[in-house]
């Protein structure tokens, strides 16, 4: 092993065009998808919300390089250091604040480089290099010249990448199963709901606004109660909150509006990214940017799809415009199906089994993420032998 710069491991390190590509207009052929920092989450490129672009825009924004399978996308601003890997079949052009790295196959394994850049040590180096009086950012030259201390030979890199990649592959499969089950639930709900009349949400459901405990009171923070923000709801995989970025204490719930909601409660974002919907898989509090709906007359599984369907209608109201915020009056104008008790019971039974399947796969994925993040620094530092890691991963998958 020897000291290198990041450029030594790449055949290409290029900045993106410093503008956001325009979306394709109706009738234009779709040549690919534009991605920016929001599309790179948890080490992966996610295209679910990526903007389709025309052939002209694609060619303009890929003039420096067309991303190909195995390339690495790195965010250099807002935030610094997110990393994603281009997979087979992806047709991408990079939006602003991102850059493209193409591994040199003779010097670097693509999967290894991906995980290497995600490792705590390299993330620390990237953030240490970032500068800016208001928003931290990386320059292309800083990334090219970044000194990386220890890199194994390519054959060993390949083994490390394969070990960690096996965990990510299983996570992808789990999420695909969960997404399919979620789509089936939507179809089941819609087929039953359309047979019944609708009433304003406020007639059937009681919205509960969340709150933020006093930030100055340290005894309120760092507890064991998940505290879901709008960001947690927006980023919830398949609309399920299994964990949150921040946790609060019991004292916080007793002295603020951040009351603990039971599992099965449904959360709707009211500010910022308005209209995102997720259900709580664990008892959680929510912040003031969200409303919660607890199961009651409407049971948990039905409640989730009822609120999500209402949110979709809400976002399309007012002649195609969207609400900038949601308040209590909003629920007087958004309608949901008024289902009889026997229909609610039968429908909930049909949906609940699929919901359990979804949560089961997402919880397994969360455990795999924890394992991956535990193995990653140990493999990169050489403290853990690849052979031992392979055995651990085999037992876990």
Which CATH top level class of the largest domain fits?
Alpha Beta
Largest sheet: 5 strands, mixed
Main sheet strand line-up = 13-20-17-18-15
Helix content: 25-40%
pLDDT below 50 for ≥5 consecutive residues: which ranges?
A: none
Could you say which overall geometry the principal axes of the C-alpha atoms support? globular
CATH homologous superfamily heading of the largest domain: DNA methylase specificity domains
How many angstroms does the end-to-end distance come to? 31 Å
Q: Overall mean pLDDT score?
A: 94
Category from helices, strands and their pairing: alpha+beta
Per DSSP, the total helix count is 11
| CATH topology annotation of the largest domain | Adenine-n6-DNA-methyltransferase TaqI, Chain A, domain 2
C-alpha Rg (nearest Å) = 23 Å
Q: In the residues, how many domains can be counted?
A: 2
| Strands, count | 21
Q: What portion of residues belong to β-strands?
A: 15-25%
CATH architecture of the largest domain: Alpha-Beta Complex
How would you describe what is shown here?
The protein is α+β, with helices and mostly antiparallel strands. It folds into two domains: 4-151, Adenine-n6-DNA-methyltransferase TaqI, Chain A, domain 2 (Alpha-Beta Complex); 197-338, DNA methylase specificity domains (Adenine-n6-DNA-methyltransferase TaqI, Chain A, domain 2, Alpha-Beta Complex). It contains eleven helices and 21 strands. The chain has helices spanning 55-61, 110-118, 120-129, 140-144, 154-193, 201-204, 230-234, 250-254, 300-315, 341-381, 386-396, and strands at residues 4-5, 10-15, 30-35, 40-41, 44-45, 51-54, 72-76, 80-85, 92-94, 98-103, 147-148, 198-200, 208-209, 221-228, 240-241, 246-248, 266-269, 277-280, 285-286, 290-293, 335-337. The strands form seven sheets. A five-stranded mixed β-sheet has the order 13-20-17-18-15. A hairpin with a 2-residue loop joins strand 4 and strand 5. The longest helix has 41 residues, at 341-381. It is globular, with a radius of gyration of 23 Å. The model has no long low-confidence stretch (mean pLDDT 94).
């Amino acid at each position: 092993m020897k000291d290198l710069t990041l450029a030594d491991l790449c055949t290409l390190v290029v900045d993106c065009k410093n503008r956001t590509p325009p979306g394709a207009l109706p009738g234009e052929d779709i040549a690919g998808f534009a991605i920016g920092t929001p599309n790179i989450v948890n080490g992966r490129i996610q295209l679910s919300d990526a903007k389709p672009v025309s052939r002209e825009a694609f060619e303009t924004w890929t003039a420096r390089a067309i991303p190909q399978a195995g390339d690495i996308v790195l965010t250099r601003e807002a935030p610094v250091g997110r990393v994603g890997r281009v997979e087979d079949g992806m047709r991408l052009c990079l939006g602003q604040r991102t850059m493209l790295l193409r591994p040199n196959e003779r010097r670097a394994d693509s999967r290894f480089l991906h995980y290497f850049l995600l490792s705590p040590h390299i993330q620390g180096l990237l953030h240490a290099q970032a500068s800016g009086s208001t928003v931290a950012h990386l320059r292309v030259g800083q990334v090219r010249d970044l000194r990386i201390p220890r890199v194994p030979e390519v054959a060993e890199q390949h083994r490390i990448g394969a070990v960690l990649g096996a965990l990510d592959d299983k996570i992808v499969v789990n999420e695909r199963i969960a997404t399919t089950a979620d789509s089936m639930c939507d179809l089941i709900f819609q087929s039953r709901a359309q047979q019944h009349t609708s009433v304003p949400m406020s007639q059937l459901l009681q919205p509960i606004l969340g709150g933020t405990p006093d930030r100055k009171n340290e005894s309120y923070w760092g507890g064991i109660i998940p505290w879901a923000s709008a960001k947690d709801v927006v980023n919830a995989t398949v609309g399920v909150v299994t964990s949150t970025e921040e946790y609060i204490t019991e004292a916080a719930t007793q002295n603020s509006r951040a009351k603990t909601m039971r599992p099965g409660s449904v959360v709707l974002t009211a500010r910022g990214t308005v209209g995102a919907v997720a259900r709580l898989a664990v008892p959680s509090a929510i912040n003031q940017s969200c409303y919660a709906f607890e199961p009651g007359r409407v049971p948990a599984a039905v409640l989730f799809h009822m609120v999500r369907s209402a949110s979709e209608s809400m976002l399309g109201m007012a002649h195609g415009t969207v609400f900038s915020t949601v308040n209590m009056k909003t629920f007087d104008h958004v309608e949901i199906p008024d289902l009889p008790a026997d229909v609610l019971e039968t429908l909930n039974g049909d949906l609940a089994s699929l919901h359990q399947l979804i949560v089961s796969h997402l919880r397994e994925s969360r455990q795999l993420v924890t394992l991956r993040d535990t193995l990653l620094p140990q493999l990169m530092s050489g403290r853990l032998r690849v052979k031992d890691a392979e055995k651990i991963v085999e037992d876990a998958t």
